[in-house]
Amino acid sequence: MASNGSRNQTRSHAEDSMQSLPSFFVIGPPRTGTSWLHTVLSQAAWLSSPTKETRFFDKHFHRGLDWYRSHYRKAPADRRIGEIAPTYFASAEARERIARVVPDAKVVCTFRNPVDRVLSLYRLKRAYGLIPWDFEEAMERDPELMESSRYGSHLEAWQKTLGSQVFSTIFEDMQRDPQSYLDTLVDFVGVRRLQLAPSQAARVLASEGMTEPRSYRWTRGAAMVADWSKAHRLDTVVARAKHLGFMKLFLGGGPAFPELSSSERLKLHQRFRPEVEKLEAILNRDLSAWKHP
């Protein structure tokens, strides 16, 4: 029979293990201001470092919890731990694993006009050499573009899994009043309130000015090396390369992305409309502006 000391030691170890895991996740979907939130929240919470997105719960789960905890090994005891993880939103595996591993975690979603968001996501992926296609072909061949746009369906699934631990916000609210948006978010996840500097309040969404890469092959190769390095705990190498400006050698430099025509925008609005209406019903909020060009 285990002694009280052994039981207390086991309980203490379990508590320490849970403390080294996130108590909240900001799950996007992608291109909804998550980079801005990472910069801001890092002032009061402890986020994964030096990699911003570990992709543990959707891509690297097989590497185990020790691998995941290594991204938070320097977290002080007096700070909430969190992860900015926009790829988790559309992942059923991530949802189920989070519910199993950190069942008390808070989850934050931010929704943006789906046409603007999917175009922004396409441009980001193209700029980083992740996809080789033009926009029309990418919409048919890259599952993430459509899957991450299924706002109502995925939000409903998250709510069924984690209930009131899921908090939904709107990107336009972030743009219109960043301070109020941030106050509401940090209150929900249990992080102290932050006063935004004027420069932070004015810069909600960065990197919208990205262009095509100079060379898709070189940019793609650099992205693959970076992903391999992160997976093998060489995050500091990638972070150092970014700090020294090496990524600028591979990003951008090509022609500007073409704008969508009115007819193309109309088709996208019609394509996304069912999910927007489903989201409207869940949030009890009028999103008419997202239904028409």
What does this structure look like?
The structure is a single chain. The protein has 293 residues and is of the alpha/beta class. It has a single domain, classed as 3-Layer(aba) Sandwich (Rossmann fold), CATH 3.40.50.300. Helices cover 51% and strands 7% of the residues. It is built from 14 helices and 5 strands. It has helices at 4-19, 34-41, 64-69, 92-101, 114-127, 135-141, 143-147, 151-162, 171-176, 178-189, 198-202, 216-231, 235-243, 262-283; strands spanning 24-26, 46-47, 81-84, 106-111, 166-170. A 5-stranded parallel sheet has the order 2-3-1-4-5, sandwiched between helices. Strand 2 (46-47), helix 3 and strand 3 (81-84) form a beta-alpha-beta unit. Helix 8 runs parallel beside helix 14 (262-283). It is globular and about 55 Å long. The N and C termini lie far apart (69 Å). Mean pLDDT is 85; it is low at 1-17.
- SSE order: HEHEHEHEHHHHEHHHHHH
What structural category do the secondary elements indicate? alpha/beta
Oligomer: single chain
Would you tell me the overall average pLDDT? 85
Largest sheet: 5 strands, parallel
- CATH fold description: Rossmann fold
Top CATH class: Alpha Beta
Envelope shape: globular
